[in-house]
Amino acid sequence: MTSYRTPEKSTKNGTCPGAPKQKYRKISEDLILDEERHKIEKEFGKTNFEICIPSSELDEVLTHEKDVIISHSFGCYCWNNFRKTEYYHMRSNVPITKRDVIKKLIELDFNTFCNHSFLEDIFMKTPCQIGLYFGS
């Protein structure tokens, strides 16, 4: 049986989940993070949101369903719960990965229009619904 989870939260020091551990000197950490960011920017180009998911997780299969819904709740203080959840349909003949979801968001010109523009996690909410977690 597939288990579903809640999204990861950003760490206390403001880094994205999956960022390198604090075992390197500051200069080494900055170089590693710069390389990771450059790799993601090179692949996806300019987006309306920052992608904080490590490139090593982008090919993680989320579902084998052909038709899924991507949902995003705007339940943050920026919108004061006035903006309703948005839903987007996604169809694929191959297993859907986090990379595929990001490409779909870019294709849709997705924008949160608030302070929470750092895509920190993509997760399965239900067997056919993909959730997004944006932080600030």
Write up what this structure looks like.
With 136 residues, the protein is of the alpha/beta class. The protein contains 2 helices and 7 strands. Strands 1-6-7-3-4 form a 5-stranded mixed sheet. The chain has a two-stranded antiparallel sheet with strand order 2-5.
In short:
With 136 residues, the chain is α/β, with parallel strands linked by helices. It has a domain at 48-135.
Helix/strand order: HEEEEEHEE
Order of strands in the sheet with the most strands? 1-6-7-3-4
| Largest pleated sheet | 5 strands, mixed
Helical amount: 10-25%
The general outline is globular
Structural class: alpha/beta
Computed CA radius of gyration, to the nearest angstrom: 15 Å
Determine the number of helices (DSSP H or I, runs of at least 4 residues). 2
Q: Whole-Å distance between the termini?
A: 33 Å
Question: What's the rounded overall pLDDT mean?
Answer: 81
Number of strands: 7
For this entry, what is the oligomeric state of its chains? single chain
Write the layout of secondary structure elements.
Layout: H1 26-44, E1 50-51, E2 61-63, E3 67-72, E4 86-91, E5 96-97, H2 98-107, E6 118-126, E7 129-135
Parallel strand pairs: 1-6, 3-7
Antiparallel strand pairs: 2-5, 3-4, 6-7
List keywords for this structure.
globular, 21% helix, alpha/beta, two-stranded antiparallel ribbon, 136 residues, 26% strand, 7 strands, five-stranded mixed beta sheet
